[in-house]
Design goal:
Number of helices: 23
Helix content: 55-70%
Number of strands: 13
């Protein structure tokens, strides 16, 4: 009965999705019909009107907003994916808003009690019933703990987990259907949905966000330029997150910053420098550094909040990013292609000569732009559009990083129109390069490399012994694939069949001649019936063989 209810709910949701897509002109039938068609005029009139009124990108955005939290989050994930979507759609997705109404305080109170086993009044001296923010997954409130500490409380939306779970199931089904219909496409829709599923499930668990926040706070504990809120673990669960309130001015509030007399150029520099240090020095970074998540504490201090999305970079990816940046600075397209090949990012079908040509164009174009005029976001967008055109597969963490870099540059330009992220990146890369060449750090890296190589070398005898044992027992199978063998195999098989058929025809002719000459058995037209049947069969098979040979010759000429 429970499964039936679930299937019924899913069916209802499928209808809602279908209706919404048709409304905005994305019905397969609507798209295929000619604009003057009677059915399109009368049955798809609304979608036709909207198609004329809005651009394709805007219709995608409006459809996602109407479909609710899961689809809004999906759109936000895709809002920098120039590598898999056309530019007009991606540009529009950056304007996606969480158009979700507030849920009542009483429901928030009930969720709080169910999660922690306490009433709100038992924990807080004060609690503002009006939320300061309402997003797709949860609502944010202000409060004061009994201890007197000002805090921010995140409470998850009622039933949001089941809503997202249902929509993810539907998205997985849809992605599977698209894969079946478009097998030759470079985009793997199942992978996109799988990545989205992983990220949104992390966001649904507030303990994950709390842990991210704590990691950042410990890493920057003694840094006077940054403040990260403390997590109150005693009152934090999967659906409740309580952190210290950061007192400051949102970076989006330019007028208030100016009123305080703060140096906006310096604040933009500090915020961007902190973000770039997160990447290159610590290997993890804030995944959504928009102005609403950054606060000005004082003239030289920035506060970061909301760690639901965080990017973690392993050593290999970090080296890949550093190589890309250095190759860009040196205008070395060949090195970029080499780095992409090492990451197995370039499909076998890609024409690397053309890819190199387009990369060279971008490198030369942006290299000649003065630093104060260079827009990092435009350069990254152009790079991503090339990856889309050539089907280059960019690692998901790198996509998140690119999105975050674009966001931080946009944030910096709000404070300082002449803000330049390229200069900060260059300074930091030079600093890292010098730091690595210091004897102490060089020896440390050399030591780590030596230990890694020694461990691998130490395991070699065991590995070799295992291989030899498998060979001895006949358990090792070598599979060799040689291009062109399949065609050769077909040719040999065809030739063998024709030779066999020729031998059969020859045998029938010889045998039938002997039977006719012996004049035994029943007769037909004064000749042996068996002999005539043999000759007739040989004639039919001979005709078939001639046609087959002629057909092969014609095909080869084509």
């Amino acid at each position: 009965m429970k499964d039936f209810k679930m299937k019924y709910k899913n069916m209802k949701r499928y209808r809602e999705i279908s209706r919404t897509l048709a409304k905005y002109g994305f019905s397969i039938i609507s798209d295929k019909l000619d604009s003057g068609n009677f059915f399109k005029k009368h049955f798809f009139k609304r979608s036709t009107d909207l198609s004329k009124k809005y651009s394709r990108g805007k219709r995608v955005r409006l459809a996602l907003e109407e479909l609710g939290p899961t689809f809004i989050k999906l759109g936000q994930l895709l809002s920098t994916r120039y590598d898999i979507l056309p530019a007009d759609i991606v540009d529009e997705l950056t304007m996606l808003q969480d158009n979700v109404g507030e849920f009542p305080y009483e429901k928030a109170r009930m969720i709080f009690k169910n999660e922690l086993g306490f009433e709100i009044e038992e924990i807080f001296k004060e609690f503002d019933k009006r939320p300061i923010a309402a997003a797709s997954i949860g609502q944010v409130y202000r409060g004061v703990l009994k201890s007197g500490q000002n805090v921010v409380i995140k409470i998850q939306r009622p039933n949001i987990e089941s809503i997202i779970s249902r929509d993810l199931s539907i998205l997985k089904t849809i992605s599977g259907l698209i894969e079946d219909l478009k097998k030759n496409r470079l985009i793997n829709y199942k992978d996109v949905v799988s990545e989205f599923s992983y990220l949104i499930n992390k966001e649904l668990d507030y303990t994950y966000e709390g842990q991210n926040c704590e990691n950042f706070r410990i890493k920057f504990l003694n840094d006077e330029r940054i403040e990260i809120p403390k997590v109150y673990w005693k009152y934090t669960t999967k659906k409740i997150l309580i952190t210290k309130e950061i007192k400051g001015i949102k970076l989006s509030n330019i007028k208030e910053i100016e009123k305080k007399g703060y140096n906006k150029e310096n604040l933009a520099y500090i915020g961007a420098k902190l973000f770039m240090e997160q990447i290159f020095l610590h290997g993890y970074f804030h995944g959504d550094p928009h102005p609403g998540n950054l606060f000005v504490i004082n003239k030289g201090k920035i506060g970061f909040i909301d760690f639901g999305i965080v990017g973690y970079l392993d050593k290999e990816t970090l080296n890949f990013i550093t190589n890309l940046l250095r190759s860009g600075v040196n205008k070395d397209a060949s090195r970029i292609i080499s780095s992409l090949n090492k990451m197995n990012a370039i499909p076998a079908k890609t024409d690397e000569t053309l890819l190199k040509r387009d990369l060279n164009y971008i490198l030369n174009y942006y290299y000649n732009i003065p630093f104060d005029k260079l827009n990092f976001t435009d350069a990254l967008n152009d790079l991503l559009q090339i990856t889309y055109e050539y089907g280059v597969k960019i690692p998901s963490q790198l996509i998140l990083l690119i999105k975050s870099i674009m966001t931080i540059e946009g944030t910096g330009r709000k404070l300082n129109p002449n803000f330049n992220l390229t200069q900060i990146s260059k300074e930091l890369l030079n600093s890292i390069k010098k730091d690595k060449l210091k004897p102490k750090n060089f020896l440390k890296e050399f030591s780590e490399l030596s230990i890694d190589n020694f461990e691998e070398f130490k395991d070699m005898p065991k590995l070799l012994k295992r291989i030899l044992f498998k060979i001895e027992k006949g358990k090792l199978n070598l599979i060799m694939k040689q291009e062109g063998f399949k065609q050769l195999e077909k040719e040999i098989s065809s030739m063998t069949n024709k030779v066999s058929l020729s031998l059969i025809i020859s045998s029938l002719i010889v045998g039938s001649s002997i039977v006719i000459q012996s004049k035994t058995g029943p007769t037909l037209l004064g000749m042996s019936a068996f002999g005539l049947i043999g000759f007739s069969t040989a004639a039919i098979l001979g005709l078939f063989l001639i046609i087959s040979i002629l057909y092969t010759l014609i095909n080869k000429r084509k």
